[in-house]
Amino acid sequence: MKTQVVGYEALRRVQRQELELLELPHEQKMYAGDIFGALNTLGSTSEDHVRGFALLVDDTPRGFFLLKHGALLPSWADADAATLHALMIDVEWQGRGLGKQCVQGLPELVQTLWPDVRQLMLSVDAENQTALGLYLGLGWVDRGTAYRGRVGYERRMALAL
Prior knowledge:
Elements: E1 3-7, H1 13-19, H2 26-32, H3 35-43, E2 50-57, E3 60-69, E4 81-89, H4 98-113, E5 119-125, H5 129-137, E6 141-148, E7 153-160
Parallel strand pairs: 4-5
Antiparallel strand pairs: 1-2, 2-3, 3-4, 5-7, 6-7
């Protein structure tokens, strides 16, 4: 199984169509939204401040996430950060370590894109124990409550680069 993270702009037309088939369980959609919302965010703003990435498994999209920085940072993020949004792995491919692989590769990816960024940040629902376990297990630090989200209170997480 060959995996790689590829910028959305580098995907072939057929890969973009396959990406639109990415499906999440209902309970995960509450936290991450869906692929159409993520792609809408990507298409509605400058590439300088938001970038989309697909996780390919044997050249087929099985995951997706957004990175933001600069003018598009959320109000809860520090000015020297890039933020992770809409991390999603297709329901059929969950439980195989693909989300962990995406998160582990973020520091190198962000430093290549935006060398001035000093930390990664994200917000995660306080009730999303699976995600919290993933981030904490990979060295992210819980920096407290960020805001009240759609589902519950969001925790602010950070990883120094």
